């Protein structure tokens, strides 16, 4: 791969496993840390990127702790001099009343149909959190822009907040400012993939992005993807994505 191709490369990385991921709890905008496994996953992701010759010149991360810790770990391991910045648009989807609730409890309380509609479809949206739920949460992260913890979003809402982010990122890729790494969450990355690759509602329903598995896109002179994204470790990525799907999806 010549230098021009590398500089038009985009790497998407979902943050390492969080403590709530490990317990299969809906997290959304709650600001939880990485698990021990999640911290170890950063080193694996960094090694995969290093072996592929991908040392980002820019890392853009969600402001939530599980993403910023992943981004900082990748920068330390791969590219200590790279620029690192945060963008609130990359924050996880707000799950409303599902926030902080174990997935099995959500299925039992609201039923399988609502669970699927709220979790996987483009327009499905859980009810907002109750006042009682809000009172039980500790405060969320800083830097979330207009997002309010517990308000609830559909994936379509996340697509709309990610849309201007993709427009700016596309310009940077067209200018060969890469490689660029985006470190975010299952749903903000699903939204970004929808915009980048013009995915249908059905395609995005079935898209599950595993933790800390680098997904690489080559882009053209306009910043648009050339073909689908490719995981640097496709066997492990597919196995981990299957586990996410078995839990009910990202």
- Overall 3D shape: globular
Count of the domains: 1
- N-to-C order of helices and strands: HEHHEHEHHHHEHHEEH
In the CATH scheme, the class would be: Alpha Beta
Strand content: 5-15%
Here the CATH topology equals: Rossmann fold
Overall radius of gyration: 17 Å
Q: What would the average pLDDT be, to the nearest integer?
A: 94
Would you tell me the structural class of the helices and strands?
alpha/beta
Number of strands: 6
Distance from N terminus to C terminus (CA atoms, Å) equals 32 Å
What are the segments in which pLDDT stays under 50 over at least 5 consecutive residues?
none
Helix content: 40-55%
Largest sheet: 6 strands, mixed
Q: For the record, what is the CATH homologous superfamily label?
A: Phosphoglycerate mutase-like
The CATH architecture classification is 3-Layer(aba) Sandwich
Count of runs of 4 or more consecutive helical residues: 11
**Which strand order spans the largest sheet, edge to edge or round the barrel?**
3-2-4-1-5-6
EC number: 5.4.2.11
Pfam families: His_Phos_1 (PF00300)
Keywords: Glycolysis, Isomerase
Catalytic activity: (2R)-2-phosphoglycerate = (2R)-3-phosphoglycerate
């Amino acid at each position: 791969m010549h230098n021009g191709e590398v500089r038009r490369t985009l790497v998407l990385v979902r943050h390492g496993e969080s403590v709530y991921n490990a317990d299969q709890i809906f997290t959304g905008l709650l600001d939880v840390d990485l698990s021990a496994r999640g911290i170890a996953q950063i080193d694996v992701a960094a090694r995969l990127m290093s072996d592929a010759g991908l040392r980002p010149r820019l890392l853009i991360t969600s402001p939530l702790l599980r993403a910023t810790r992943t981004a900082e770990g990748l920068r330390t391991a791969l590219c200590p001099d790279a620029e690192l910045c945060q963008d609130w648009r990359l924050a996880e989807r707000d799950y409303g009343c599902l926030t902080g609730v174990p997935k099995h409890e959500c299925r039992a309380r609201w039923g399988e149909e609502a669970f699927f509609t709220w979790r996987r479809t483009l327009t499905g949206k859980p009810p907002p959190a109750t006042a009682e739920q809000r009172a039980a949460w500790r405060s969320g992260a800083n830097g979330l822009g207009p997002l309010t913890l517990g308000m609830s979003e559909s994936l379509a809402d996340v697509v709309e907040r990610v849309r201007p982010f993709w427009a700016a990122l596309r310009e940077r890729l067209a200018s060969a400012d890469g490689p660029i790494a985006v470190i975010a969450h299952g749903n903000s990355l699903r939204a970004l993939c929808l915009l980048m690759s013009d995915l249908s509602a059905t395609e995005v329903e079935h898209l599950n992005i595993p933790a800390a598995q680098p997904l690489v896109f080559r882009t053209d002179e306009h910043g648009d993807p050339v073909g689908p994204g490719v995981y640097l470790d496709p066997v492990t990525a597919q196995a981990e994505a299957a586990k996410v799907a078995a839990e009910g999806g990202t």
